[in-house]
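User: Here's a structure from my thesis project, written as structure tokens. My advisor, Dr. K., wants to see whether a designed sequence matches the one we expressed. Can you design one independently, without my sequence as a hint?
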């Protein structure tokens, strides 16, 4: 009879599988722990910040606020909410997006609200965006925009009531026609009426579907 190998012990197949699974779990846990540490480490800290798309008068303040917020991040851990919060006090900023570049680069793209008219209460004049947001950070010099008289011009925030609806109607105007707008008012009979140079009145009714109404008016004109 063949001699028995008394020095070897055979483990059941199930035991080997259990060991392999255990090793895999430990390896995965170590990998996750390492990545969690690495993504917040100085090896990928944001150092080179570039800001694009800011052209308003408060450019320096917006750039400083975004740079300060970005330098607290890493290129593997971008907090879009923190960036948005950093410029929430600037009405000219509509949105921000980040484009990290491993290991230390960080480009922030800023989308600004564009002025569509100048609102005035007779005492002061402020640029206004399509949605009625006041843009006090916009330099008014050289702006050729329609003027809108309002009874109550807020210090900040946005227009409301009839002024907001009139702004929406004016803001939908095609760029070539916008310089021809002399003003707008709201009447009981015709709703919003936009007046063009030469005394041409465009009766919009409500501000809804303003782009389609402008398209129809442009075709007639």
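Assistant: Designed independently from the structure alone:
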């Amino acid at each position: 009879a063949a001699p028995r190998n008394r020095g070897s012990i055979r483990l059941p197949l199930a035991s080997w599988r259990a060991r392999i699974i255990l090793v895999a779990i430990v390896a995965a846990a170590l990998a996750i722990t390492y990545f969690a540490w690495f993504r917040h480490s100085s090896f990928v800290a944001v150092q080179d910040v570039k800001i694009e798309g800011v052209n308003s008068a408060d450019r320096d303040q917006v750039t400083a606020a975004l740079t300060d917020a970005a330098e607290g991040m890493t290129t593997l851990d971008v907090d879009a909410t923190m960036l948005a919060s950093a410029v929430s006090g600037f009405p000219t900023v509509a949105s921000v997006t980040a484009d990290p570049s491993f290991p230390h680069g960080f480009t922030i793209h800023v989308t600004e609200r564009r002025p569509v008219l100048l609102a005035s209460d007779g005492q002061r004049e402020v640029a206004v965006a399509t949605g009625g947001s006041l843009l006090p950070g916009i330099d008014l010099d050289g702006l050729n925009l329609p003027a809108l008289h309002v009874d109550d011009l807020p210090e900040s925030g946005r227009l409301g009531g009839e002024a907001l609806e009139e702004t929406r109607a004016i803001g939908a105007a095609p760029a070539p026609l916008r310089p021809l707008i002399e003003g707008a008012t709201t009447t009981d009979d015709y709703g919003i009426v936009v007046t063009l140079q030469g005394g041409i009145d465009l009766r919009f009714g409500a501000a809804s579907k303003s782009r389609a109404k402008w398209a129809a008016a442009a075709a007639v004109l």
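When you compare it with your expressed construct, this may help: Helices lie at 13-38, 59-70, 80-86, 161-171, 210-220.
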